Amino acid sequence: MFNSFGEIFRFTTFGESHGKAIGVVIDGVPAGIEFDKEFLINELDRRRPGKNRFATSRNESDTPEVLSGVFEGKTTGTPIAIVIFNKNQKSNDYSNIKDIFRPGHADFTYFYKYGIRDYRGGGRSSARETAARVAAGAVAKMILKEFGIEIEAGVIEIGGIRTENLDYEYAKNSPIFALDREIEKKWMEMIDNARKDHNSFGGAVKLRIKNLPIGLGEPIYYKLDNVLASAMVSINAVKGVYIGNTEAHKLTGLQNNDEISKEGFLSNYSGGVLGGISNGEDVEAEIYFKPTPSIFKPQKSVDVNGNEVEVNLKGRHDPIVAIRGSVVVEAMGACVVADMLMLNATRTIEKLKKIYQ
Predict the structure, then answer these.
(1) Which residues pair with 70 in a beta bridge?
(2) CA nearest 86: which of 15, 174, 169?
(3) Which residues contact 208 (CB under 8 A, 6 or more apart)?
(4) Which of 52, 187, 296, 345 is deepest in the core (most CB within 10 A)?
């Protein structure tokens, strides 16, 4: 019952890593939105595995099939169903660990919660599920385009090496979505070395949402920033989120407050959110990914019977999750904003009805 996200713009994903297909059903999309199938394909291609050496070698085309909710290039206002068929599973790579819990994975918790687990690539807990989220995010972006709202993201840190240069245009065409062309080569070398050493890296992604109107967010328990943070932490391997100035916890109030003039805010330490409501500035957040837990080094663990064992993994895995994760960050950010826009519109309509009753 907890496979859905959103209040009005709401999506539900389905499928497993090594199942027949994954997909998403999106509800709450207004009728008459231009549905750009090529844009949907391009968004999925950005996240797609097997594109280069910085991602898993699992080669999926991630070609979407739109089953409903679109007619003659426009949304109909009914649920939009999108399915992506899995083509390149290698389930035998996991046969040696079907009774063993992989360190850093959801194997242990899924087994003890449900009494059963899909050991083939993690099943439902696999990052393969995020392709369905990217499809939902693509539809959300089609809505946001109508309002001139832009969602951007890129990698700002890998393995503790950080940049403060934020070139979002460059990140769009970087093979690792790097926000800094100067440090990109260094990061690539680090990832290559980690792969050769059968290890992995963590990283951080910077998210920016531009042109939001003032007033999005539903205090107290559906604030823009708390829903955004929740959406990000729901992404595989994300362990933390910081909204606004990442140094705020080290500062005084005088240093961190955004002073205001008649022209507007003089800084944006708040990250575009005050009291859980958008203030018209860019919404900015950093999202922190742990290292990929699937590494090809012997590790200690236990099996389903409690016996101590040594784990030796096989398979195809990303040497760093944050790279393709940056595309998922964009998608979830778009879904949050689309939902907030719908909530805001609904409240406005209700107010108008009361005025003219």
Answers:
(1) 75
(2) 15
(3) 151, 152, 153, 166, 168, 282, 283, 284
(4) 187
The strand pairing partners of 260, in sequence order, are 265
Count of all residues that appear for the chain in the document: 357
Q: Report how far residue 338's alpha carbon sits from residue 336's, in angstroms, rounded to the nearest whole number.
A: 6
| pLDDT, average across residues 200-211 | 97
Determine phi and psi for 326, rounding to 5 degrees. -65, -30
Residue appearing with tokens 């800094």: 180
**Is the confidence at residue 213, as pLDDT, over 80?**
yes
Please give the average per-residue pLDDT across 129-138, as a whole number: 97
According to the model, what pLDDT value does residue 232 have? 98
Give the span between the Cα atoms of 41 and 135, in whole angstroms. Answer: 8
DSSP three-state, residue 226: helix
Relative orientation angle of helices 130-145 and 322-355, to the nearest 10 degrees: 50
Sketch out the chain's domains with CATH numbers: 4-355 (3.60.150.10)
Inter-axis angle of helices 37-47 and 130-145, to 10 degrees? 140
